C-alpha cells in the first residue's frame, strides 16, 4: 500500500465517523420554560420580600378612609371625616414635605407662588 492510499483511507474513515456521529446522535429533548409559572413565582417572591422603604410600588394597600384622607379634595366634609376616623384608629395623617406646594399654591413660606 502506498502512503497516499493510507491517507485517503484514514480521511474517509474520519469523515464517515463524523457523519455517523452527527446523524446517529439524536438531539436532546427540549426543556421548554413554562413562562407563566416562572412569572407567577417571581411575583410571589417579590411580594413576599417587599421592602416599602426601597420600593415605592410595594407600599401597603390603603384602607378607603386612608385613601380618602390622603388623596381626597381638601376642605371636603367627607375627607375631614375620613381623616378623623384614621386619626382615631391610630393611623398617620398626611402632611406636606419640605418644598411641596399645598393646594393654595404655598411652598413652605408665606408667599404664594
Descriptive account of the structure:
- This protein is rod-shaped.
- The chain has four helices and no strands.
- It is mainly alpha-helical and 113 residues long.
Radius of gyration, taken over Cα atoms and rounded to an integer in Å: 36 Å
Give the rounded overall mean pLDDT: 76
User: What is the H/E order?
Assistant: HHHH
Low confidence ranges: none
By DSSP (H or I, 4+ residues per run), the number of helices equals: 4
Number of strands: 0
Percent helix: 40-55%
- What percentage of amino acids are in beta strands? under 5%
The largest sheet, given as strand count, sense and whether it forms a barrel, is:
none
Summarize the structure.
The chain has helices at 3-24, 35-48, 64-71, 77-88.
Present the secondary structure layout:
Blueprint: H1 3-24, H2 35-48, H3 64-71, H4 77-88
What attributes characterize this protein structure?
113 residues, mainly alpha, 4 helices
Amino acid at each position: 500500500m502506498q502512503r497516499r492510499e493510507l491517507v485517503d483511507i484514514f480521511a474517509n474513515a474520519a469523515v464517515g465517523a463524523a457523519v455517523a456521529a452527527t446523524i446517529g446522535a439524536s438531539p436532546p429533548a427540549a426543556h421548554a420554560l413554562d413562562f407563566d409559572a416562572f412569572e407567577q413565582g417571581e411575583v410571589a417572591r417579590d411580594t413576599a420580600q417587599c421592602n416599602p422603604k426601597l420600593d415605592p410600588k410595594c407600599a401597603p394597600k390603603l384602607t378607603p378612609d386612608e385613601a380618602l384622607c390622603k388623596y381626597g379634595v381638601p376642605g371636603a366634609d367627607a375627607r375631614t371625616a375620613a381623616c378623623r376616623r384614621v386619626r382615631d384608629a391610630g393611623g398617620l395623617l398626611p402632611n406636606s414635605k419640605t418644598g411641596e406646594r399645598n393646594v393654595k399654591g404655598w411652598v413652605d413660606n408665606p408667599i404664594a407662588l
